[in-house]
Amino acid sequence: MALLQITEPGKSATPHHHNLAAGIDLGTTNSLVATVRSGLAETLPDIEGHHLLPSIVHYAKDTPPLVGTAAKLLAQTDPLNTIVSVKRLMGRGLSDVKTTGTRLPYDFIENEGQGMPMIRTVVGERSPVQISADILKTLKQRAEESLGGDLVGVVITVPAYFDDAQRQATKDAATLAGLKVLRLLNEPTAAAVAYGLDQEAKGIHAIYDLGGGTFDISILRLQRGVFEVMATAGNSALGGDDFDRLIAQWIMQKAGIADDAEHRHIRELLDIAQCAKETLSTQDTAPLNIQLTDGINWQGELTSEQFNTLIDPLIQKTIAPCRRALRDAGLTIDDINEVVMVGGSTRMPRVRQKIGDFFKRTPHVNIDPDEVVAIGAAIQADILAGNKPDNEMLLLDVNPLSLGIETMGGVVEKIIPRNTTIPVARAQDFTTFKDGQIAMAIHVVQGERELVLDCRSLARFELRGIPPMVAGAARIRVTYQVDADGLLSVSAKEETSGIQSEIIVKPSYGLQDNEIERMLKDSLEHAKEDSFARNLREQQVEADRVINALRAAITADGQHLLKHQEFLDINSKLNELLSIKEGKNAKVIKKAIEQLDEVTQDFAARRMDHSIRHAMTGRSVDEFTEN
Ligand code: ADP
Ligand code: MG
Fold first, then answer.
1. Same domain, 211 and 79
2. How many domains does the chain have?
3. I need a labelling partner for 259 at 20 to 30 A (CA). Which of 83, 133, 171, 411 fits?
4. pLDDT tens digits, 169-207
């Protein structure tokens, strides 16, 4: 299997010259930028000393966009122009956005499911890529001011789950922000790098990442500088925000505030709830002082005991994906050597305790869970920028969903199975279905199900100019290649003629985490019925092929090579197959094909003899002995 060797672009650079590079954690809730200075990786603060930049952008007329805390303050009063959680929209279409269930208050522009969702703001339409670029610009500026020079490049982290379109959108945002992307790095891998697990560490690591709105669990295998993401799972609608909501609901109940309270009151309560939650990470009680503008006053407190009872079901919800990731990796809890905590929400002592219990190990928490991803990215950026010529690191990731191709009958042939280590290239040979076929349609799909209609269509292209041959004679090699950033390219080549065609898959929108989840779940639930459906389709396709070939043979040679009774026998079996092939029983179709095959065997043999004799008649022996 192809392993990625990260070369050292700076090997030839003059010694002691330090290339300025940075690692960026472009988070759903918060973003950070970090760099390596004097051998130490550290996150960079803004002028007020804040390291976290809330991933929020506010647009107003005639001024540059506001990013971060300042924008957050405007979220309540100007929600339509204040974009939060834009990461959820990256690389997705409007139809995806609408089906997420997450209510986003923006004014989306209808463009019939095509392309990126655009958001109408006072400064015009903005795409998620542009909005992310505004966040990245802020981080770029912060880094360049702090380091006193231009960045040669950055490493940006993405969830291990991100699909092709989401990764591409992230790269596009960086380009738009004027940043050179040295590499997209998976968040869990970055966390492992930050813990220095790359150096000497060996074994299996679980990276548990609970952020503001998402949960990811990844199982990494480490062997001296080699990282392999063995499996990933998660829940794209579970994070710190849900804990805030629970506390807010609890307060509303205690203070007798109606469920349908005004939006801005709920917003205010959520802020108070978040504050209380964060207090409880270091203290046993959090005082609550509710004074809403319309006269609602309530004083009370939340103890960590009460809080723990409230949140235990949420923490429990992260366990199922942990189990699934373990199962996908073919491991049990006892195989896990280390557990790493990532994401602001893992500051909660209860989370650490419960997850420690589950994995039967005290989790790593030495590095600030907010910063760990950015720090790992900075270390990687430093190496890729050529500042550590002696350090070699291999980073391996996996593709989250199987990549396949549509074959006859709408059946999916998987070419790169899910959780295959990337970068990877896999080829498979296909052939033509009909005599004289000169083109082949290649349909690239993503998903776990057996039938094309249950998978996601990624791209279509055609291979033209195949020399006319009998069905089954052409050899078309289709190669799927996924690069280190997780981007797919597909090529097809007809081996006898050498004609070739290829495509870089850059779908206009991709899958979101919970859609990936759903597809995985579906595939497990439907495994049996899918294999049944696949089997049936395959038999139907085979029946069509046999019927077509037989009809062509009868037209060509039936007249002179078939006896009358023989013709009647064949015809009756042929009709039998025709009448049952649209049915639902693959076994019955198979049997009918076999029977048809049996009655046509003599005819086929005679045709073979005949065509050989035909080829030889009228030619002298000399012709065959000539070279
Ligand atoms: P993301 O990866 O989604 O950008 P972060 O990793 O920055 O998110 O996590 C943000 C979440 O962490 C927020 O919900 C925030 O309330 C929560 N958080 C931050 N600090 C603490 C703390 N001390 N205790 C509990 N939760 C915290
Ligand atoms: Mg994060």
1. yes
2. 3
3. 83
4. 999 999 999 999 998 998 999 999 898 766 566 789 999
